[in-house]
Automatic annotation (TrEMBL):
Pfam families per record: DUF4230
Protein name (database record): DUF4230 domain-containing protein
Species for this entry: Dyadobacter fermentans (strain ATCC 700827 / DSM 18053 / CIP 107007 / KCTC 52180 / NS114)
Keyword terms: Membrane, Transmembrane, Transmembrane helix
TM segment ranges: 6-27
Domain of life where this protein originates: Bacteria
Length: 222
């Protein structure tokens, strides 16, 4: 084999190797494109509002919610679906001072409150987990079912929070804050609330007896 033939063979081998490497890279890139996913997120701010809301109490709740739906098919088959939902929530109760009405008499270091809002739930942060989900042949869970279940569970959580001692604790806290703040500035507070407002606030001024019932496994109350 002469030198020119050997040189040509070396060039051919190098070119073939480079072509093979390029082909392999192209195939790998094409193959990887099949598994590339693009994620995009858009955050839209609808509006921004100035608020004067103050949290005075927070509570942690756990709710066990049993859901069952029976569907009678042609009066022959009772097709049912059910689920056990355990909901945990952090509830913040306080006051929206934007709803308070007051005035200051001329020349006096005094604040007269004409209307004081009732305590309310300012925020509720919930976490739901579904257990023991059972579905029938035709009566199956749809996305609307989950939405309705979560809305009902959240509504129940709101009601239980307002029936607890959180509003009363918030009421005591806000009175302490207002009168101590006024005293530190040598101001006085005078409450001139209408009867309806007094009656509304009185509902949140006493402890509520906690009543709890435990469902046994056979469905009876213990």
């Amino acid at each position: 084999m002469d030198s020119s033939t050997l040189f040509f063979l070396i060039i051919a081998l190098i070119a073939g190797g480079l072509s093979g490497a390029a082909l392999n890279t192209w195939l790998q890139a094409r193959k990887s494109k099949k598994y590339v996913s693009t994620q995009e997120a858009s955050v839209l701010i609808e509006r921004i509002e100035k608020v004067f809301k103050v949290v005075m109490a927070e509570g942690y709740f756990t709710e066990i919610y049993n859901y069952q739906n029976d569907k009678n098919i042609w009066n022959l088959i009772n097709d049912k679906k059910k689920a056990l939902i355990i909901a945990k929530a952090k509830v913040l109760v306080g006051y929206d001072f934007g709803k308070m009405k007051f005035h200051r008499p001329d020349g006096e270091r005094k604040l007269v409150i004409d209307f004081f809002p009732a305590p309310e739930i300012l925020s509720i942060d919930t976490d739901y987990k579904f257990y023991d989900i059972e579905q029938g042949w035709l009566n199956r869970f749809q996305s609307d079912d989950y939405t309705a279940i979560l809305n009902e569970a959240k509504q129940t959580m709101n009601e239980k929070a307002m029936e607890s001692d959180l509003p009363r604790i918030a009421g005591n806290q806000v009175q302490l804050m207002i009168f101590q703040l006024a005293a530190s500035m040598n101001w006085s507070i005078e409450m001139k609330l209408p009867d309806g407002n007094v009656a509304l606030l009185r509902e949140f001024s006493h402890y509520r007896t906690l009543e709890a019932e435990i469902d046994s496994l056979d469905g009876r109350k213990e």
